[in-house]
Design brief:
A four-stranded antiparallel β-sheet has the order 1-2-3-4, with no helix packed on it. The protein is an all-beta fold and about 150 residues long. It starts with 18 loop residues before the first strand and ends in a 7-residue tail after the last strand. About 0% of the residues lie in helices and about 45% in strands.
């Protein structure tokens, strides 16, 4: 049987821990990864070589208390949600660059510390309803959230 998948490249995304989940940006130009190192990393194509490769263009650190088990990128609004082992759900928004060529940055836009009674394990944005976010956790619950982007972001 011919190979249906061929490896393009491999990136050491979270070298000191596990990489738990991935999510593409709405445009498909960026990829978010999350892991046991309590970071979300944003990856962009590195156009400097002849072979396809990816490089980390932004790291979100210092926001999560434990492993981040899931990341979801809203294809309607561009918001990024995370589910964390500290029981919390967080939402990040990309900060508009000051000038062309400036690095990609994100800011914390929402944080629910006790979104679940135990680890939050998954997040998913509704594909057609902006701001509708679902999360699930070790408590056995699915929680539904309405997110509205704060003014000034």
């Amino acid at each position: 049987m011919p190979e249906a998948l061929s490896l393009l490249c491999r990136v050491s995304a979270h070298p000191e821990s596990r990489c738990w989940a991935l999510a593409w940006s709405p445009s498909g130009t960026l990829l978010a990864s999350c892991g046991g190192d309590r970071t979300v990393r944003i990856w962009g194509r590195d156009g400097s070589g002849t072979e396809p490769s990816w490089k980390c263009v932004c790291t979100l650190s210092g926001y999560h208390g434990r492993s981040i088990y899931d990341v979801a990128w809203c294809h309607l609004t561009g918001a990024v949600a995370t589910a964390c082992g500290d029981d919390a759900v967080r939402v990040f928004e990309e900060v508009a660059p000051v000038a062309p060529g400036c690095p990609v940055t994100f800011s914390l836009a929402a944080h629910v510390p006790r979104a679940h009674a135990q680890d939050a394990n998954g997040v998913a944005w509704h594909p057609r309803e902006p701001g509708l976010l679902a999360s699930c956790g070790d408590d056995g619950d699915i929680a539904f959230w309405h997110y509205q982007r704060p003014e000034g972001l």
